[in-house]
Design a protein that fits this description.
Elements: H1 4-18, H2 29-43, H3 47-76, H4 79-82, H5 88-97, H6 101-114, H7 123-132, H8 137-149, H9 153-165, H10 175-189, H11 193-204, H12 213-224, H13 229-235, H14 244-256, H15 260-285, H16 294-301, H17 305-313, H18 316-330, H19 335-344, H20 355-362
Amino acid sequence: MINKKFFVCLFFFVYSVASFFAVELPLFQGSLRVLEDAQYAYDSRSYGTALKLAEDAKLLRSQEVADYLGILDRALSPIEVRDAGDAISSVISVLKFREVYDAIDLIQYVVELKGVEYFNNSVSKVREYIASKEIIPEAAYLIAKVYQIEGEYDLSVQYYTYAWENSAVLEIPDSKYDILYDLAELSYSFNKLEEAEKALLLIVADDPYYTNKNFVAAVYSSIKRGYGVDKVFDLYRTDCYRSTSAFFKLADLYQEQGRLEEAFESDLFGILTAFTRINEVLSDRSVVFKYTGLKNLLETAMKNREISDWTVDIGFWHSLYMLGELADTIYPENKDFGETIFESLSVAPQSYRVELADIRLKK
């Protein structure tokens, strides 16, 4: 989730870039400060103040954008500047000759932030970028969270949706996944399961492994050919880690609805992604570690408190147990797949032992 640290880091990052320029910068420092205050009020549970400040930030941003566009438009309107074309370097050269330093500093500041390639060396695209910053999806996100706390479902969904639809201008692009996770959680809490599913599917839609039909087909082919879980996990890796919780939540949702094959697929990719992360961490921390099987990997991982706590936090053990149950139901001919999973559950943290798995092992 977006928190105060996000706004503090964002402000100082923008400010550090601005220190190279003579004019009073950074861009949007006023609205960013108000938005930071809004986040502080939210964290302090002063939700009414947070809501007001978020709205104030939106109004202030509109004025800031108008001011910056005014600087550009006045500088670019003379015929000598228009005759220079649209290339940033050519326009800057003419503006220097005309001593229009506020526009120069503004253009150079934005280019320094994003890189000249981002704008394809076009002043017009610099202007478009500044104009696009009138929208503050971070403010809409914060407002959505306030309305969620107040139980205003429709308003909260409205602002979450607005924040998501304008996620292209988020200062931190991956924050769009936080928005979708929160939207899914809100929808689920109000039993709006279809809306929850849609939000979660938008998250996994950006997973390059899950959307690779050949990769998915290869995984399923291995299972259908009787490969055990140890072999399958040795063959395939999925390191799009932001998808893990979305897969687990989708698996739970599908299982509740009796959509077992979809539950299995979501759970499989969630476990495979979590497994990949654990394997990666263990390999990075020990040159002698080598994957020999799921149980061995998890047994080694549980000796690390950080990894152990993480598996509990993300619901890994619940999802692993579910995967074993689903595998037995959908692929009864591949008994090794499910049995190995149940054996692996024996190394789970004590607080997360699954009694049914222990009973299964005793049979």
